[in-house]
Design brief:
By secondary structure, the chain is α/β, with parallel strands linked by helices. It folds into 6 domains: 207 residues, P-loop containing nucleotide triphosphate hydrolases (Rossmann fold, 3-Layer(aba) Sandwich), CATH 3.40.50.300; 165 residues, P-loop containing nucleotide triphosphate hydrolases (Rossmann fold, 3-Layer(aba) Sandwich); 75 residues, Arc Repressor Mutant, subunit A (Orthogonal Bundle), CATH 1.10.10.10; 45 residues, no CATH class; 176 residues, no CATH class; 142 residues, no CATH class. It is built from 37 helices and 28 strands. The strands form 6 sheets. A 7-stranded parallel β-sheet has the order 3-4-2-5-6-1-7, with helices on both faces. Strands 8-13-12-9-11-10 form a 6-stranded parallel β-sheet, sandwiched between helices. Strand 12, helix 14 and strand 13 form a beta-alpha-beta unit. Helix 15 crosses helix 21, helix 16 packs across helix 18 and helix 24 crosses helix 26. The longest helix is centred in the last third of the chain and has 20 residues. It is globular, with a radius of gyration of 31 Å.
Length: 927
């Protein structure tokens, strides 16, 4: 269709002229959406990134605003992320400025001056987040402006509908209707699994899809290490397979101008970025994840958009908007675990209309089958089902208080009718609402008048409401610090610390076992241990769950390859993998065939020491459900608690139970849901979720630390309350899959799925037991690597050397650069004191002493200590400096080490290593 006879011609002449100036011609989605939105329909617009769906939704709104009389604020544009606000503001400002419309942005970081301006001089269009909408609904002046709202646009609706932010938004919009009356709702998304469900969530919306959706091409590669990569292991401190993937990234960054690299975890992003920097400092790249400061994230986004960076390594928290510049290539590092994740990530590349998105998935051996299946589903456009929360009681509680603030004399029946209008609460019963009302009344947050049934707010209502605007859980995190290198390893959530980090306990992080030495402030101090088999991997946040359908399809692919029922050409065509990857898949299956290949119709149970590895291709949530059910019954049988860890393809038990016990349990399942419920209360998962729900209800203050809460007592007190009920509902919705677990149990009973028991570990068993959640596998002999890391850190430590003979000469130098017999360049004395580089103020004490100034008792003590270090240096030379550079090692400890007369540097370092570990363990007890 030519521009002069396009859908733009039905727009207001001013807008039509701008549209034709901005676009060569309308896109397919603009042709379809503009007329329907002009008619006033609620619509759900689907189109790939880069096809102009934002303008498809906003051009008809602009048209209405400039053609019809309206009051301010008439339009609210809701985005899930703050930085999308920034991008959307820039994008929409181009139009609104030329049309004489005022547009403004409001979120949690908006300064008070801007808030006042919005209240006194409101814009035509307000861009905001779901949480900020909740914040402005009760305000008197803002409420007056919100009474003018005629249009609500929800951007990236897929980011909201499946979580509690989406429920909160749906109720918030129902509250907005009480202020403004009915308004038109328009939602935008690039990908979503259950279209009709989301359309109902919006409010009987018309689904509009583009016929011109851009194709997404993803090629899977399996980088294989060569001898050169083995040489880099020691330098880069990562395993050769990871180095092979890293080198592939380097080559791709050099080949393309603008590369976005997605990882599944923050730790992976940090490791990749740091190793890239270590390997080639000339590559302009940066890292972006949720644990970085807002300023750091914004800066990396800005540099990437302006092409000051050649590559950005990011997690799902990447908050880049749609206008992110010309990205040539998206690299997905390891399996994305879900089809929608792959589409959302790779869809960011090549935004120009007419161009297809292109990405490369760098897989490891373990994720190769999963990556292939996900890529195959991508080609088929087979997406995961969208799950929407129903009757979430904690969100309901917060919105009830919001309604009492909105309207002072609101009745129970009015609240019920407003809440029922939300899709998420369409099945709510009045009895359940009354339960929540009674509970809130007991908490002192509101009260119900018995005769009139009017619900009245209290003074405490305001504080509770504004403290709980966000449904996103508040999590306090602890940094894991390696006592050997004094470097951070990763992060642990407070729940894991409270439950599992007692002194002496072991856990796994980054594919290695660590022993807890002590906990102080916001740090867990650990030391590496070699007995990796003794530790169950730690929970370090929540990995994206792999769906039941994908895992069973992985099992099916294993079976087809094992039985030679699929050819190489068919695999290439169906999954878009290279021949090298296919050869590796066949190799994996052939090795496993000597034992037994677990697949979609066969479960393998194998044993190793006190571990039982249960191979089950049923996905993250089903395996978690099966694991909890089996684990509970094993506990009851033996009266001894077990440890359990699950992933999408296996369940690992550490138990005195036997494989035959598990087989018997699976063949005779009964009361599955009841059994799981009974076992949940004592689990870390339940306690963690309970705290978050309790905070949303106002039972626990928002800023309370887990380790300061008597969680068992609180759970006991609220066992029969809506808090307990909502915690169970949330876990069953988000973390378990009873429906598909029951399907598996039934298939086992009727022998559609068979169980095989083997003694010893197969190749898949070894991989699962040792490294199941590791993306970076540590070398097989960690002791050598640990010592090398310690040595590198110690010799790179900077110290201050000061002459204790003249007091005039001092310098800062790395330990490795200190002379064997250091001496003063001014007086040639070898009486050289050693001061930690962070203790720079001690220099003044030495200088004051030589100037004849009177020192305090504390200063005299410090001077004496420095003088004693000089005595060691004049006797032992550089060896003394090396000792004194050790963490927590003073003159006394250094004297003991040096008096042992170490035969060489290696033995000296060993003594220092032991002394550092002793200090780390014991210094908290020192006076």
């Amino acid at each position: 269709m030519e521009t002069n006879e396009s859908i733009f011609d039905i727009l207001n002449p001013r807008l039509m002229e701008l549209a034709k100036k901005r676009f060569v011609k309308p896109t397919d989605i603009q042709e379809k959406a503009i007329p329907e939105i002009l008619k006033g329909k609620n619509v759900l617009v689907f189109a790939a990134t880069g096809l102009g769906k934002t303008e498809a939704c906003m051009l008809p709104i602009f048209n209405k605003l400039i053609s019809d009389k309206h009051e301010k604020i008439s339009t609210i544009y809701i985005t899930p992320l703050k930085s999308l606000n920034r991008d959307m503001f820039d994008r929409l400002f181009w139009w609104s400025d030329r049309l004489g419309l005022e547009i403004s942005i409001r979120h949690g970081d908006t300064v008070q001056k801007e808030r006042t301006e919005q209240r006194e001089m409101p814009p035509d269009i307000l861009i905001t987040t779901p949480e900020t909408l909740q914040a402005i609904l009760p305000g008197k002046k803002m409420k007056k402006h919100l009474s003018n709202v005629k249009y609500v646009i929800i951007d990236e609706v897929h980011e909201l509908v499946s979580n509690k932010r989406g429920i909160q938004l749906s109720l918030g919009l129902e509250r907005l209707k009480q202020i403004s009356g009915k308004f038109q709702v328009i939602a935008l998304s690039a990908t979503i699994g259950s279209e009709s469900k989301v359309a109902n969530y919006i409010g009987n919306a018309m689904i509009i899809k583009s016929d011109a959706n851009r194709d997404i091409e993803v090629n899977i590669r399996l980088p294989t290490p060569v001898k050169e990569h083995e040489k880099l292991e020691e330098r880069l401190f990562i395993d050769k397979y990871c180095i092979a993937r890293l080198m592939e990234i380097v080559n791709l960054i050099k080949k393309y101008n603008s590369v976005l690299v997605f990882t599944n975890t923050r730790q992976t992003a940090e490791v990749l970025s740091s190793r890239l920097r270590e390997f080639d400092k000339e590559i302009r790249q940066d890292v972006h994840h949720g644990s970085l400061s807002k300023e750091a994230r914004v800066e990396s986004e800005r540099k990437f958009k302006n092409q000051e960076l050649r590559a950005l390594i990011a997690t799902s928290s990447l908050e880049l908007g749609l206008d992110i510049g010309a990205i040539d290539l998206v690299i997905q590092y390891l399996s994305p675990r879900q089809v929608t994740k792959l589409i959302q990530r790779v869809g960011r590349s090549r935004h120009s209309v007419g161009e297809n998105s292109y990405g490369i998935l760098l897989s490891d051996e373990e994720g190769l089958f999963e990556s292939a299946i996900i890529n195959g589903y991508l080609k088929q456009k087979k997406l995961e089902e969208t799950k929407i929360h129903e009757n979430a009681l904690d969100v309901l509680a917060h919105q009830i208080i919001g309604l009492t603030i909105d309207k002072y004399d609101i009745t129970v029946n009015e609240i019920f009718q407003i809440v029922k209008n939300s899709y998420s609460y369409r099945n709510l019963k009045i009895e359940k609402l009354n339960e929540v009302l009674n509970f809130l009344s007991k908490l002192g947050l509101m009260f119900v008048e018995p005769v009139t049934t009017k619900v009245k707010r209290r003074k405490s209502s305001w504080q509770y409401y504004y403290e709980n605007l966000s449904t996103i859980p508040d999590t306090h995190q602890y940094r894991i610090i390696n006592a050997v290198t004094n470097e951070p390893i990763g992060l642990l959530d407070e729940l894991f610390v409270a439950e599992h980090c007692e002194t002496g306990n072991t856990f796994i992080c980054k594919g290695r076992a660590w022993k807890t030495v002590q906990i102080e402030k916001n740090m867990v101090i650990v030391e590496p241990v070699a007995d990796i088999e003794s530790a169950i991997p730690s929970w370090e946040g929540e990995l994206i769950p792999v769906p039941f359908e994908i895992s069973t399809a992985v099992g099916e692919l294993r079976r087809l390859i094992k039985n030679k029922e699929i050819t190489k050409d068919e695999i290439i065509k169906k999954f878009n993998v290279d021949e090298q990857s296919i050869n590796k898949m066949e190799n994996i299956i052939n090795k496993q065939k000597r034992y037994f290949v677990p697949d979609d119709k066969n479960i393998l149970i194998e044993t190793y020491q006190d571990f039982i590895i249960f191979h089950s291709c049923f996905g993250s949530l089903v395996n978690e459900t099966i694991g909890r059910y089996v684990g509970t019954l094993l506990n009851l049988k033996y009266g001894v608690s077990l440890q359990m860890k699950t992933n999408p393809y296996s369940i690992i038990f550490k138990t005195i139970g036997k494989p035959d016990d598990i087989k018997e349990i699976l063949e005779n399942t009964k009361n599955v849901e009841t059994t799981i419920i009974e076992s949940l209360e004592n689990s870390s998962l339940f306690k963690w979720r309970f705290i978050q729900v309790a905070k949303r209800f106002g039972v626990i203050t928002k800023n309370a630390y887990f380790d300061k809460i008597n969680i068992n007592k609180i759970i006991s007190l609220y066992k029969d309350s809506p808090v307990y009920e909502e915690t169970k509902r949330e876990i069953f919705f988000e973390k378990l899959d009873i429906k598909n677990a029951m399907k598996v149990f039934n298939d086992i009973k009727n022998e559609t799925i068979k169980i095989k028991i083997n003694k010893g570990l197969s190749p898949m068993g070894k991989q699962n037991l040792l490294y199941q959640f590791s993306e970076f596998l540590a070398p097989k002999e960690p002791t050598t690597e640990i010592f090398k890391a310690f040595k590198r850190r110690l010799l790179n430590t900077s110290v201050i050397l000061i002459c204790m003979n003249c007091g005039k000469f001092y310098l800062t130098r790395k330990v490795e650069r200190v002379e064997n017999e250091p001496e003063c360049v001014l007086c040639s004395s070898r009486l050289i004191g050693v001061i930690n580089k962070n203790a720079y103020p001690l220099l003044k004490i030495v200088k004051d002493k030589f100037k004849g100034k009177k020192l305090s008792k504390a200063e005299e003590k410090e001077y004496t200590t420095i003088r004693r270090t000089a005595d060691l240096t004049i006797t032992y030379g550089k060896k003394a400096v090396i000792c004194l550079a050790g963490h927590g090692i003073g003159p006394e400890t250094a004297t003991r080490i040096l008096a042992r007369l170490p035969k060489d540097e290696k033995q000296l370092l060993k003594y220092i290593f032991e002394a550092e570990k002793l200090f780390t363990r014991t210094h908290k007890y020192w006076k």
